[in-house]
Amino acid sequence: MKWLEEFIYWLFKDVFGMNEHDLMFDAITFFFYDVIKIFILLSVLIFITSYIQSYFTPERTRKILGSMKGIQGNIVGALLGTVTPFCSCSSIPIFIAFTRSGLPLGVTFSFLISSPLVDIASIILLTSIFGYEVALLYVVVGLLIAVIGGFIIGLLKMDDQIEEFARFDINEHYELQEDEKMSQKERSRYALNEVKNIIKKVYLYVFIGVGIGALIHGYIPTSWILAVLGDNNPFSVIIATLISIPIYADIFGTLPIAEALLLKGVGLGTVLSFMMAVTALSLPSILMLKRVVKPKLLVTFISIVTISIIIMGYIFNFYQFIF
C-alpha cells in the first residue's frame, strides 16, 4: 500500500507541519499507516476467509478428519487449520469437540497448532509486509510444525492424558446431521457479521500491537534491540520465543511489532519465532488447554512446539544470512 504510506507521510509533513526528522514523526506515521492498512486488509480478508469458513463448520471438519489416519490425517488436520481462522484460545473448544468425537489425538493437535499459526488472512498480510518468499516460507514451516508436532504426539500414544470430560465415549450416541445448506446471500451475511465480530475482538490488540511497534520504530535505539535480539547474540531466537509466551494476541496484533523489529535490524528468524510463539503458545491458551489435558501431555505439547519454533528461527536466520 505505497499510496497509503505516501498519503500519511504527506498528511503529517505538509498538512500538519511536523518535522520529518523528529522521532515522534516516525512513530506517528508508522502508527497511522499500520492501523489503517491492517483494518483495510482485515475487513477484506476476514470477509473472504469467513465466506470460505461457512463451508467448513466444526461438524464438517470432524467428518473430513474422521476418515484420515496416520501422517495423512496430520497433514489434512494442519491444512484445515489454515481455512478455519480461530485464535489459539478459540481453537480449544474445537479441539475438545474433536477429542470427544473420537478423532486421533495427533490429528487434533495438528489442527490445534495450525489453526492460530497459519490462516489465509495472515498469509496475505505477511506477504504485504515481508514479501511472498518470506510468507511462503512461514506457511511451509508453520504447517511442518503442525504436522510433525501432531505426528509425534500421535506416536506417543497419550490418549490417557486427556481429561475424562473431553474423551470419546463409545457408548455415547452422536447423531450426525448434515450441515444446513446456506444460500449465497446467507453466506455473505455470515461473512459480514464475522467481519464485525472479529474486528470488535481484535481492534484493541491491533491498536496495542501497532502502538508498541510505533514506539519500537520511533524511540527505542537500534543498538538496544540488537544487543538483545541481534545476530551477535546467539540466544536471540530463544529469548524472542520465551518472552512472547506470556503475550496474548493473534497474528494481526503481532505483525506491527514484528515489522518494527525487522526494520531495526533484528534477524528474520528471530522475528518470526516471536510471532509464532505469541500465536501458538500464548499463556491464556495454555491455561485453557490445561483444563483439557493432563500435565504430561501439556508439557509434551509445549516442548514440541517451542523446540520446533526455536529450530525454525535459527533456520530462517541462517537463510537470511546466506541469501
Poorly predicted segments: 170-179
DSSP helical segment count: 15
The main β sheet shows up as: none
Helix content: over 70%
Count of individual beta strands: 0
Q: What structural class do the secondary elements suggest?
A: mainly alpha
Q: Determine the N-to-C terminus distance.
A: 26 Å
- What is the radius of gyration? 21 Å
Shape field: globular
As a percent range, the share of strand residues is under 5%
What's the order of the H and E elements? HHHHHHHHHHHHHHH
Mean pLDDT across every amino acid position = 75
Description of the structure:
There is one protein chain. The protein is mostly helical and 323 residues long. 74% of the residues lie in helices and 0% in strands. Mean pLDDT is 75; it is low at 170-179. The protein has 15 helices and no strands.
Helix and strand topology:
Elements: H1 2-15, H2 23-53, H3 58-66, H4 70-82, H5 91-100, H6 105-117, H7 120-130, H8 132-155, H9 184-218, H10 222-229, H11 236-244, H12 251-263, H13 268-280, H14 283-290, H15 295-322
Helix pairs in contact: 1-2, 2-7, 2-9, 4-6, 4-8, 5-6, 6-8, 7-8, 7-12, 8-15, 9-12, 11-13, 11-15, 12-13, 13-15
Provide the descriptors you would attach to this structure in a database record.
323 residues; globular; mainly alpha
Task: Write a short abstract of this structure.
This protein is 74% helix and 0% strand. The chain has 15 helices and no strands. It has helices at residues 2-15, 23-53, 58-66, 70-82, 91-100, 105-117, 120-130, 132-155, 184-218, 222-229, 236-244, 251-263, 268-280, 283-290, 295-322.
